Predict the 3D structure of the following.
Amino acid sequence: MKLLKKKRKQRAKISIKNNLSPVYSQFVPRVLRDWNLASSIVVTENGSDSIQVPIDNNYYGDVGWVGVANISYNGDHISNATVRINDTYMKLARYKNAEQQQFVVTHEIGHALGVGHQNTTFCDQNVGSVMDYTAQILGGSHSCGGSTVNFGISNLNPNPNDIGTVNDQNGHNH
Ligand SMILES: [Zn+2]
Ligand SMILES: [Zn+2]
């Protein structure tokens, strides 16, 4: 008689290769904590997993992006990704604060895990997602684009939709 073994879903093991300057590197533990809420993945720092996500920062110039994630796919699964943070913008007063730095690092790692934007309007209510563009990461009532906008809640974390996307992307067998 054959033993019926319950098939256990393998979690995708992803390692962030941290080449960041200390100013950004300090935000990586929160990135790991936040995205590891997704049950389909295990994200570690500087591990030897087959999926490698190097992240670095440099002065990439006035190129139109604060951060960028370039992703390679094997079928519909991410095989690796590269994340870059652009100091050309991040050193400007507007970006030079802890929540902006945390937001950009968590946001770009989100892209590297296959998560897209939830909203790309800066002057509207936050959906509570780090994948939602906003002029006020921490929420609250502020002037924006000439009028007062109630931004509501903080956008500093992934929300359940983001976590669901990570699980859709990584949590299925072929
Ligand atoms: Zn698949
Ligand atoms: Zn983005």
